[in-house]
TrEMBL record:
<dbReference type="InterPro" id="IPR036872">
    <property type="entry name" value="CH_dom_sf"/>
</dbReference>
<dbReference type="GO" id="GO:0051639">
    <property type="term" value="P:actin filament network formation"/>
</dbReference>
<dbReference type="Pfam" id="PF00307">
    <property type="entry name" value="CH"/>
</dbReference>
<dbReference type="GO" id="GO:0005884">
    <property type="term" value="C:actin filament"/>
</dbReference>
<keyword id="KW-0106">Calcium</keyword>
<feature type="domain" description="Calponin-homology (CH)">
    <location>
        <begin position="315"/>
        <end position="418"/>
    </location>
</feature>
<dbReference type="InterPro" id="IPR001589">
    <property type="entry name" value="Actinin_actin-bd_CS"/>
</dbReference>
<keyword id="KW-0479">Metal-binding</keyword>
<keyword id="KW-0009">Actin-binding</keyword>
<protein>
    <recommendedName>
        <fullName>Fimbrin</fullName>
    </recommendedName>
</protein>
<dbReference type="InterPro" id="IPR039959">
    <property type="entry name" value="Fimbrin/Plastin"/>
</dbReference>
<dbReference type="GO" id="GO:0051017">
    <property type="term" value="P:actin filament bundle assembly"/>
</dbReference>
<dbReference type="GO" id="GO:0051015">
    <property type="term" value="F:actin filament binding"/>
</dbReference>
<dbReference type="GO" id="GO:0032432">
    <property type="term" value="C:actin filament bundle"/>
</dbReference>
<dbReference type="GO" id="GO:0030479">
    <property type="term" value="C:actin cortical patch"/>
</dbReference>
<dbReference type="InterPro" id="IPR011992">
    <property type="entry name" value="EF-hand-dom_pair"/>
</dbReference>
<feature type="domain" description="Calponin-homology (CH)">
    <location>
        <begin position="170"/>
        <end position="287"/>
    </location>
</feature>
Amino acid sequence: HLPATIPAYVDRIAATYPTPSHTPAPAAEEYSSSRPTQPLPGFGSNNNNRMGINTQALAVKYSYFTASEIQAFHQQFAAVDKDGNDSIHQSDLSNISTKAGVSAAEVTDKLQQLHLTDAEGNASFEAFLKAVSKVREEKGVPKPKAQGEGAPKKIVLHGHLENTTHTINEDEKESFTQHINWVLTGDKDVGHRLPIDEKSMQVFAEAKDGLILAKLINDAVPNTIDERVLNAGRKLNAFQMTENNNVVVNSAKAIGCSVVNIGSQDIIEGREHLILGLIWQIIKIGLQAKIDIKVHPELFRLLESGETLEEFLKLPPEQILLRWFNYHLKKAGWNKTVKNFSGDVKDGDNYTVLLNQLAPGQCSRAPLQTADLFDRAEQVLQNADKLGCRKYLTAKTLVGGNPKLNFAFVANLFNTHPGLEKLTEAELAQLDEWLFSSEGDREARAFALWLNSLGVEPFVNNLFDDLQDGLVLLQAMDRVKPGIVEWKKVNKAPVGSKFKKVENTNYVVVLGKSLRFSLVGIQGSDITDGNKTLTLGLVWQLMREHVIQTLRSLSSAGVEITDADMIKWANETVKRGGKHSNMNSFKDSGLSTGVYFLDLLNGIKAGVVDYGLVTAGTDEDSAKLNAKYAISIARKLGATIFVLPEDIVEVKAKMILTFVGTLMAVDKHLAH
């Protein structure tokens, strides 16, 4: 992971540490209430669904709703109905009405017209359904179509902005909720809240305080978050939830999630489509983390004739999984191949052969003789269950060809039963030589994560391959210094010929020189050819410029900030907090203990560091703990950073510069 994307956190800090004289009120159409959002009560594992309802019967009675919609709205209604007596005041229907795609005023008026409230203005859940149905009927809203067998179940929710809707896949919601229940059972902070009811919308309420999402990130990529910084407890206030969700959002970026349009407030407000998308990205990153040559050296077996290891490892995880799937199908003598995780697996035949090849003594090919697709799918899953791998898929989602759930199923199968032969000594030696030569990957990954945090398209997976047409670099330059790129001079995607790519990368070099980058001897063709050293050098200077530009924008006079200015600020801030550690340069060996950065954070916000958890950092393990603690506190304050504990312990000057620059920007923003 790596440095800093600074403007992204500035928006979040205002929510965490509001300054009334400088922070404008949110736009009315974006927030349905100006009051801080509190955790929804009654969503513990023993309190779910206090008012029993028959969603199917209600969907027949109120045909403008699907059963899934009714379940979703009932969950929200129950959250407001604190007494559990199927009655809330009509003034509390605002958020639920918005989700239903009608205004609160329309629902209130209709409740009055139809005499659906009592003398005190309270309405039942059925009264709400009846009122919304009438409004929808009068507006000419079409009734939902019935979903056939095998069709994906979808819940349509209306957004916070007028005339916007968001759809979530109910099968995915149920599967992801099951995953959360599996991996977090017994957790000391959230275990008492499990299992989450997978059939309801409870998962979105449980996600609001950030704890479950933070734990999920640490399950996917262990030790990403130092859990000592999290606010735990059965009831957190809005401020504490915002701090937790700052950690979640910034840590999600650091493990490779695309969260450009997600902030801590979105999670607190329970925006279902954003939360479900984030949960999936976290689960997927965790599942594909082991699809790695360092974890499974046997992946070496999947190389095709004439293919180098470097070429193979440039493949995205999905393609490596498909290669693995087809490797086993070929060894089984099967004449079919799999090219995707949807249409090519939905009949269950390829799964049957794969499972039989992995465990012939436990998984037979009997499902191939079953004509009914759903029965065959169930038999496939029964075979998977024998291997402890009946996860993510149901017979319906297998036959429906859901690509996310099928990917998850296959990834879990690979992680637990790879079925690849061990390497010989000669093959291991060849692999070790390649791994030794690729030690610079940590910095490259950091730079790729930084570029992705800027919202560039396409998403950068491989720094050296994905920058070759110049378009990502030009987008990044335009984010760092808006208006610098004259887009009429740029060859737009898809850029086919090398000549056109070099035109773009030559323009990148020209713009870099205008920003006073040191680009002696660098030509556009070096980037297009994927020259690692020169590409890293260019991206580093662009990242550093991002830090400088942000600091300049936050200074009163808009002056240039130098390395010396950052070091001076850092040392003064440490003293401001009453500490005496000191930094001479970004290469100062004394930084390796991690203590200096904790002192710096303490200077930015008094009390944010619990010094009872800090050690002298005199050995590598304790120094890493200090560094991990400092990184998580920085994210809690709202900083988007990608620096790793190893970067601090090894005193990587580039990473430390971006860390300090980011913290300087946080401090300047808070001072405003």
